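User: Second chain of the day. Same drill as before.
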Amino acid sequence: MTEPSESLHVTEPASSSICEVLQILGAKWAFLVLDELLGGPVRFNQLKKKVSVIKTQSLTDTLRHLEKNGLVRRQVFPTVPVTVEYSLTEKGSDFQTALKEMEKWVHKWGNQKESSI
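Assistant: Same format as last time:
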């Protein structure tokens, strides 16, 4: 008997690929955080100011999720108080291409009124 995930990959490769991406980037604010980190390493409080729409706990959860999935690197500096800096891994930086394509799509289709109802 095959595993359910194996049969899903065989019968619906496009759907399973999208599901995999959503599992990795499924955190509500993941795209916004990744976009901010494309500019280079940022300390937590700097990132918090840049993405002020995100509550502190949600930002922490998003960063942990992205770190767990290998897109973000967390570096702790032994200062008083401790300084934490976040940056993109190679995997996270590689996502830049997808973000740029999404930005193109938004410029073309975003904020349009639905013309036919």
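Residues 39 and 87 are 9 Å apart (CA to CA).

User: Great, on to the next one.
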